[in-house]
Structure formats: C-alpha cells, structure tokens
Amino acid sequence: MAFTFAAFSYIVSLILDAFLIFFAVFHVIAFDELKTDFKNPIDQCNTLNPLVLPEYIVHLFFNLLFLLSGEWISLLINMPLIAYHVHRYMNRPIMSRAGLYDPTTIMNGDELSRATKEGWFKLGFYLITFFYYLYGMISSLISDSQ
Question: Tens of pLDDT along 116-134?
Fold first, then answer.
C-alpha cells in the first residue's frame, strides 16, 4: 500500500466531513426546535452563528487539499457548495458578529423553511460525499500500490 498525498487528502476529508455531518445534523435539530417553539430564537442564533465560519473553513480546507493533490473530480463535486457558501456569506444579514442567522428574521416562515431545507440538503450532500471520499481513499491506496 502506497501512501500518497491524494490518499492523505481523502483521509483528512473523511475525518473533516464527519464533523460537517455533525454540524448539519445540529443545524437541522436547531431549526426544528425553532419551528416547534422549543427554544428562544436569540439563544438558538447565538448557538448557530459561531458554527458557520468553521463549517465553511473546514469545507474549503479539504477542497484545497483536493486542489493540491490533483483530485479534480472531488473538487468539481464540491464547487457548487463552495460557490453557494461564498454567495450566502457575502449576502448575509448585517449583524454585529459573523454568522448567517439573524434572530429578528429567523422566525419568518420563509426564512425558517429555507434554513431547514438548507440544513437537510447539506446533510445529504455531506453524507453522499463521505462515502465518495471513502471510495476515493480506498481506490487511491489500491491504485498506488500496484
């Protein structure tokens, strides 16, 4: 078994993608709690907003590893979500701190519905890419050893 930078990139992406799955599950649960009036929107947004930049940085980091290792298909798969993250962060509400969720507007039906759909979509995307990265790691380890 040969250990290359591509295999390293896939291993790191697997580990970091597990964290992204956790973030997405946390977001879905948080928006469900808001929908059922279980939690205060101010507290919930104060909990969710600090997770936005780490999620984006982690996602960008392992895609940078894919770029450096020449894993173009993996990078291409992630480019739409990277573009969405950049667009979403550039068009965020004006707030005093970093984050996407404004407590004054998060309880609007459209905003809450959009945030919930976004959380479910990201969860599905991260789950699919987790298994793709697992396949990529195994195939890069096998193909480099032959």
Answer: 999 999 999 999 999 999 9
